[in-house]
Amino acid sequence: FPCQRRQTRRGFDLLNIQRAMVHTLIVTGVAAAAAASAPPAGTSLLVNVFTDNGWAIGLVRADETSFRYVLEPGPDRHSWWGAVFAPDGASSYCEDLEEIARFSLEGKKLWSAPIATMFPGGGLNSGARRSPSPDGTALLVDADMDEDTTVKEWDGPPPSVFRIDLATGTATRVTPKGALVWEPQWLDASSFLATTLGPNDKEPSIVRVPLAAGPPVVVVKDARTASVAASAR
């Protein structure tokens, strides 16, 4: 799986293919783009695009032959962030700091759930990561919690990972209180990859986290932002 060896902790980090798409979008007159997501077939990318009116979500073909908006900014610069493809390849999940929603690639809202209800004592930032399960029944999300952490060097609210049941809209915490765990990515039906930073760590590492009881296992030290090919799940 691809990952990044970077010293930054949170926010948008661009992979090589994302940098290529940024160049393409700038050439076509769009200001900037970040946080690309590819569907299972790999024929296109969803990107966050910064426009004069706020952040938008765009769809660009992987061969760089076309680009169009899926969701444009609304009144008062209302924006949607962090779109990721659903397993069907025909819709995506994103959030606007108030709700997590699923949209068709034509911009029709198919599902939504309020963030305040799902994450009492926490919330999402615009860089929060969503990862749909391979069977499409659940969503992993990293939320910022109003809690203390034992990591003295951490600046900001501690992140934790939740599993959202898409049938009920309920969220269940799957990482311990006080631990710094973020950027989840489904690996298989029983585990996921995530970024973590321990009390004695100088840099984050990628770990494999079981959904059932059991400690996380370090997969790559001094790295973050793992992704998993659909064919590997």
Can you tell me about this structure?
This protein has 233 residues and is mainly beta. It is built from two helices and 17 strands. The chain has helices spanning 16-27, 115-118; strands spanning 32-37, 44-51, 54-61, 67-71, 81-85, 91-95, 99-104, 109-114, 122-123, 130-132, 138-145, 159-165, 170-173, 180-188, 191-197, 205-210, 217-220. Strands 9, 10, 11, 12 and 13 form a five-stranded antiparallel beta sheet that branches. The chain is globular and about 45 Å long. A hairpin with a 6-residue loop joins strand 16 and strand 17 (217-220).
What do the pLDDT scores average to?
84
Instruction: Estimate the global geometry from the Cα principal axes.
Output: globular
The largest sheet is: 5 strands, antiparallel
Helix percentage: under 10%
Order of helices and strands: HEEEEEEEEHEEEEEEEEE
Separate helix tally: 2
Q: Ranges with pLDDT <50 over ≥5 residues?
A: 2-33
| Euclidean distance between termini CA atoms | 11 Å
Rg, alpha carbons: 17 Å
What share of residues are in beta strands? 35-45%
Per DSSP E runs of 2 or more residues, the count of β-strands stands at 17
Query: Which class of secondary structure composition applies to the elements?
Result: mainly beta
